[in-house]
Here is the input.
Amino acid sequence: MTMHDRILKKGTAILAGLLLFAAVSPAHGWSQHPHRQINLEAVKLFLSQAGGKEKFSMGPFSPKGLSEPLRGVAVTSSSLLASGFVSAEAAFSAQSWIINGG
Here is the structure.
């Protein structure tokens, strides 16, 4: 094996290693934005399909529906550890409770 072949072989290995690390990006597993968006889309779909049907008007919601303000305990800060979560009383619409629940 000639010197040129050795340099080419090592250079190719180094370049492959650099490309591998350059393609890596951080994964944000704790990001809540996708979960909230999925829940929002579920609420939109429900509202579009439930509109005016009697079986949905007989439920626990008032005539205001999902926009009625409801009080409850909510997580007010997030953390990667269970000990870092803070909860407090909050008032959100039913739609907001569903969206933030995911």
Remarks:
- Residues 68-102 form one domain.
- The first strand starts at residue 69 and ends at 77.
- The chain has a mean pLDDT of 78.
- The longest helix spans residues 3-22.
